[in-house]
Amino acid sequence: MRDITPSAIRELVADIEMELTRLGQLEDDIARVNRAIDQNPSQADWLYENLALKLHSFYTGCEKVLQLIATELNGGLPAGSDWYKRLLDRMATERGGRPACATGIHRSSFERVARLVTTYPQVWREVAQDYDDFITWLGDLATTQEDG
Predict the structure, then answer these.
(1) Residue 103: how many CB atoms within 10 A of its CB?
(2) Which end of the chain has fewer CB within 10 Å, C or N?
(3) Closest CA to 108 of 129, 135, 94
(4) Residue 74 and residue 1: Cα distance in Å, rounded?
């Protein structure tokens, strides 16, 4: 993990929390679309497209958080065509004093986005818990650096 100032840590926390707020809103949005599908089966085609867009937003939101962490704490993203898989693998394990911050994503088979339609609430809770734990660690790190 590279050196980072307490101020930069707090900015990272703010960026992560902003993205988590957006991700949290998706739970209600997905539930609303699922209800609409149940109530209007004749409109299911375009409603499923709407769900796909929401799931894409979840995927890219999670990706954005991991990219922020990798950029700010590790100094950059992995290179190469499999950069995203390598990013997930790196974020799922403790590295250089940084705790794992993507365990829920791995347990939930993040690559299987279609399954998220029915399991989104559970996946979201796991993702939120991982990131909340990471935010707590960042806060502790900032405090330790200020006191040290």
Answers:
(1) 17
(2) C
(3) 129
(4) 5
Six-digit token string for 121: 């609430």
pLDDT at site 42? 94
Q: Is the pLDDT of residue 116 over 80?
A: no
Radius of gyration of the CA atoms of the chain, in A: 17
In a domain, 1, yes or no: no
In the beta sheet, which residues pair with residue 95? 98
Domain boundaries, position 32: 6-147
Q: For residue 116, is it within any domain?
A: yes
Question: How many domains does the chain fold into?
Answer: 1
| Alpha carbon distance 12, 2 (integer Å) | 14
69-110 per-position pLDDT tens digit? 999 998 899 999 888 888 888 888 888 888 988 876 655 555
In this structure, the chain runs to a length of: 148
Query: What secondary structure letter does DSSP report for 78?
Result: P
* HEC letters along 5-65: CHHHHHHHHHHHHHHHHHHHHHHHHHHHHHHHHHHCHHHHHHHHHHHHHHHHHHHHHHHHH
Q: Compute CA distances 72 → 7, 19, 135, whole Å.
A: 12, 15, 13
